[in-house]
Amino acid sequence: MSFLKAAKMVFLYSSLLSSSVAWAISKEMHALVRMETHSNAVATRESEFVRLEHYEIPLKLLEADVALRSNPGFVNSLIFEKNGEKYVRWVINPEDTKWHKEVESFLQSHGIKPEKKTHFVGYMTASRSYIAVDPKSGAEFSVKVSTDRTGGNWRDKKQTWDDGKQIRLMTDFVNDQLRKQPQLENIVLLDEPMAFGIKSIDQAMIIRSYEDLKASGKRYVPGFSIMHEELGREIAKANGSSDPAAFWNEHYNKPLARAIAEFFALTGMTYDSPHSQNFLVELDAKNRPTGKIVLRDFGDTYIAEEFFKAVNRTDISTAWEKDNVLQKRISVAIGILHGNQAPSWMDVTHDTKAANSYDQWGRDFFNEFDKEFKRQTGIELTGNSPAPSRNGMYIMRSYRMDDANAKKFLELSSQNRQRSQLLIRSCGRALFAG
Questions:
Q1: Does one domain contain both 232 and 100?
Q2: Which end of the chain has less Cβ packing within 10 Å, N or C?
Q3: How confident is the model over 388-404, as a mean pLDDT?
Q4: Which residue range(s) make up the domain with 143?
């Protein structure tokens, strides 16, 4: 089978699952796995399942941060009882040759023989994460642990417990913010409700949920798959466009700008590594972009110190990486092709105004970001420069957080009213419709 035909199969959802794997993973998640591993210009990887090995570690020896909202299926898959004691299945990354040996030494230091067991079926992604499936319950989730080998341009990746704590702290904060605000319009947020740590060796296991995807009929297409030579073109063509650069400017770049604007308005955070590994485009059951962008990896973020003071969460700004706590400004950037290879249908030449140019995408991104932030909040942020600048494949601009406009935003944020413009607009539409 040619690569193009394989990509079409992923996209069209026809014959995605063979009988050997149909029992192990939902069709929506398997489509994601296929795109993560095959529609990836940097590194094509395997999409077939493997048996994930794990260690059984007494829960009492671990740090555990499990949100009450965690899917019970995930909890029951990872935590089990044996001989009256609770244990955690600590997953070993199948590609790792280094970091799991520290876990073995940790077990031995507590008089426990480090036996490798099997329970989960696992599927590779483009990075170090694996999609784990419990073959008994059908629970499926992403699991991230340390590994010294992975795909793409990012290799030796130790998953530290310090990072795990930060991820859980920020994920709970985002979840709390959602409850206080109008419904999200532009984004789908991937929850990371569970983390386990081994403090003495500074390692962690992070669990990410895709539970809203399962049985939804939708597809989450990784940003780097959108920018893939064949798949990006095929999806655009299937939606009636012969110009993939124009199509994805409208259905990936500009929606991403609106998503980042909404995310910042909601949380006071922006991405410090805003490349296409962190974003996915939501397609409906008919393979049409819904206009929503899926955001993941909240740990890779800058935070505006003034915002966290305004919402009385200085515990987060104190715990966060100091270099990522910004004062008097916030940095917004986009690097859709950072760490990736440009498709032929995208012009990456510097300083060109061609419609299909990467620089024009950058200008369109920030125009859309500014408009959406004002639409959401009623406030126009003040840029520290008249236009965005480009550094490699990142295009960036910073905004003031100490002028009158920013102070109005912070005042509204302190009252959880920074997105009240959406409620006013919704009420106006309802009144007019009545």
A1: no
A2: C
A3: 96
A4: 44-181+191-206
